[in-house]
């Protein structure tokens, strides 16, 4: 039983690509005790995947915007599957869905569940076609994954049907008492996404970042959510009028300052979180004192600028990740910002403020993988 999740990145660059590939290819995560590393390159070499991705983009003059797409294929905790079989299934999944693209597949065995990362170049090496994610992409990929898993003799997630009750059932109340109700987690995720979304597009992006697919169209009366465990849920099956499509659209009309809501939406308590906050300034004037962290990070940055081997770079980035509690992608974003700043004007205070700002994006936090584990699955990333 496996599920496929899409991992979005709000900002992408060659630094992010390098950081993500460096993370998913770590020896401690992919090396078997009695065998080789579970890393495969489709239409590319594992050792030179980064340069091949960038070379393809340069060849077709498509170096901007989205650099790559990141998916995970995760098997349930306790699934009777070997790492080698999981890796074979992930490779078959890549061949079936992305035959004309360079794909790096890395299977991780260091978590309670076996899962594979697929990093897909956004430009086809075959014809230069740019890859785009449509609203139904994740649903289509999950169906494809199910077909492959069934062919290998594994069970798939069952189709879930809902009752008509607007109050929690006895089973739901028991799940709530145990703290593992998937519907409660869906509602909490909606609350969190609404707290930092000014538009419907922002909301959908923030939900997809947590592994929830959102179907919200003008022609449908309800909003439909598909959870990371594959279960669909309409807004009229949630407990609270604020989750209705009507109230959420009224709220976004207000937040975009199109018009005042004609009545209470139920989301008034979230509005303070959306008030503008002063943006952190890395290169703001600052005194020399309080530079211990700054000097240590600048020391690593200067070391990396000299051009070092991949092993030495990985070691340095790992040390920076431990020092800042950022993921690999977050560390590369930090280094990118430092490279464009006046080093004499940085101190520990404004550097820590900037690191805290980076951590507002879940994929930049070093503990994101552990924090996202639920339903026996994980949206594995930085």
UniProtKB/TrEMBL annotation:
Lineage: superkingdom: Bacteria
Domain MobA/VirD2-like nuclease per the UniProt entry, residue ranges: 35-153
Pfam families membership: Relaxase
Protein name per Swiss-Prot or TrEMBL: Relaxase/mobilization nuclease domain protein
Species assigned in the record: Caproiciproducens galactitolivorans
């Amino acid at each position: 039983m496996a599920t496929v999740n899409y991992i979005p990145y709000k900002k992408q660059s060659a630094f992010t690509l390098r950081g993500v590939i460096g993370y998913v290819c770590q020896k401690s995560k992919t090396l078997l005790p009695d065998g080789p590393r579970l890393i495969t390159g489709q239409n590319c070499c594992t050792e030179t995947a980064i340069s091949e991705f960038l070379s393809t983009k340069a060849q077709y003059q498509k170096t901007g915007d989205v650099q790559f797409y990141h998916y995970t294929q995760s098997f349930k905790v306790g699934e009777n599957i070997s790492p080698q079989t999981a890796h074979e299934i992930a490779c078959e999944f890549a061949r079936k869905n992305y035959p004309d693209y360079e794909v790096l597949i890395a299977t991780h065995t260091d978590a309670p569940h076996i899962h594979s990362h697929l990093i897909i170049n956004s430009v086809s090496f075959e014809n230069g076609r740019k890859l785009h994610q449509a609203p139904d992409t994740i649903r289509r990929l999950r169906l494809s994954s199910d077909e492959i898993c069934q062919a290998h003799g594994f069970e798939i997630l069952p189709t879930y049907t809902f009752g008509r009750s607007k109050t929690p059932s006895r089973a739901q109340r028991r799940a709530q008492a145990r703290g593992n109700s998937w519907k409660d987690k869906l509602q909490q995720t909606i609350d969190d996404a609404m707290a930092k979304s000014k538009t419907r597009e922002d909301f959908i992006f923030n939900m997809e970042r947590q592994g929830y697919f959102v179907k919200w169209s003008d022609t449908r009366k309800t909003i439909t959510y598909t959870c990371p465990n594959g279960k669909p849920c309409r807004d009229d099956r949630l407990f609270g009028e604020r989750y209705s499509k009507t109230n959420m659209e009224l709220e976004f009309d207000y937040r975009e300052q199109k018009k005042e809501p004609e009545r209470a939406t139920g989301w008034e308590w979230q509005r303070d979180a959306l008030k503008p906050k002063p943006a952190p300034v890395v290169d703001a004037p600052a005194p020399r004192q309080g530079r211990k962290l700054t000097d240590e990070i600048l020391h690593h940055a200067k070391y990396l600028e000299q051009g070092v081997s991949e092993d030495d770079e990985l070691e340095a980035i790992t040390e920076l990740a431990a020092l800042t509690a950022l993921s690999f992608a977050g560390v590369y974003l930090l280094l990118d910002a430092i490279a464009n700043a006046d080093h004499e004007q940085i101190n520990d205070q404004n550097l820590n403020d900037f690191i805290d700002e980076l951590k507002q994006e879940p994929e930049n936090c070093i503990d994101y993988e552990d924090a996202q584990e639920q339903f026996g699955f994980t949206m594995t990333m930085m």
